[in-house]
Amino acid sequence: MARKEQDVEHELPPPRCHPLLPEGFRQLNTQVAGHTFEAANTEAVGLLQDPSGGCVLKPMGKPECGERELRFYESLAEAGASGDNDLALLRGHVPRFYGPLKLVVNQRERTFLRLEDLTLGMLQPCVMDIKMGKRTWDPESSPRKRKLEEAKYVMCKQKLGLCLPGFQVYLKDDKDPSRTVVLRHGKDYGKSLSVEGFQKTMALFFNANSSDFRTVRPQTEVLLKEVLRQLEQILTWFRGQRLLHFYASSLLICYDYSRLGSSEKSTHLLNGHHFKEDKPSDWVKVRMIDFAHVYPADQALPDENYIFGLNSLISVVHAILHQI
Ligand SMILES: Nc1ncnc2c1ncn2[C@@H]1O[C@H](COP(=O)(O)OP(=O)(O)OP(=O)(O)O)[C@@H](O)[C@H]1O
Ligand SMILES: O=P(O)(O)O[C@@H]1[C@H](O)[C@H](O)[C@@H](OP(=O)(O)O)[C@H](OP(=O)(O)O)[C@H]1O
Question: What are the EC numbers (predicted)?
């Protein structure tokens, strides 16, 4: 049966401008936050998708930010070759990196970072970008940038060490359960959230408010437990490392709504053979993204700023799990 879908919220509309892109590439229509294409400014560039390569392409933006992010991914690649150190262990928590690529976009050559598409294979991708830490300005920020950052997302950021620049979620339409709706919100919504609003939004994102408990609940529980498992692994990494401090970096939580509806083991077709598979990590991904402001750790101290946000996030997800 054909799936019926409908957009219900339009604060964060799907991209409607038409940048000149090289053949085979398209705008990443699951991009929920960050720098985007703009109809009136051909210099503004968002993320691209290379559907044949299974990757997304992130433009290197402001020179110092782009260079820092490239160096970060390159240092991880080098560490990977040399084994079991903190940098090598971090590779499991970030998208795979396939190197830089020059592309001509809007008639100008730009460099992109090729990254694993975290939504790859998801039929109905739910995506949430959560920016981590009370402090989102880096050690080289001007007093002006620092002030700007401190004035944003104030209600959540200062209490939880978290803020919500954007998300999209598939939901069952309350009025017509045979329909699925897509809800998208951007940074204006995130900036308006109180702590309570943040908690409610998280529950909504995990489809944990659904009145359709009988069918949805078992898989919602699987989803929440898997998110917690991946968050705990990231926390373990942060507790052990003294190398890096992450400012204005995000966690991207992605899951496939189409896997939420059934608690039965799903069967997939591979090379004509059906096989059973029920690995939540296949359809739930929590990864660190956005490394434009990663710095060597000050005095080799742990990144308490990030750890504080991560602990809050774990508490919020735990509370949702216990209330379903
Ligand atoms: N590896 C990925 N796979 C899938 N989607 C991604 C990936 N990386 C980024 N995205 C999407 O792109 C968005 C923006 O990513 P990112 O935060 O890296 O960009 P940015 O322009 O540096 O953001 P900011 O303006 O906060 O600095 C994310 O919210 C997410 O929707
Ligand atoms: O959340 P908002 O209000 O969108 O604010 C943006 C956010 O802080 C981004 O992280 C930052 O990009 P960088 O991380 O690349 O600095 C961007 O700076 P910019 O406008 O100078 O690009 C800000 O505008």
Answer: 2.7.-.-
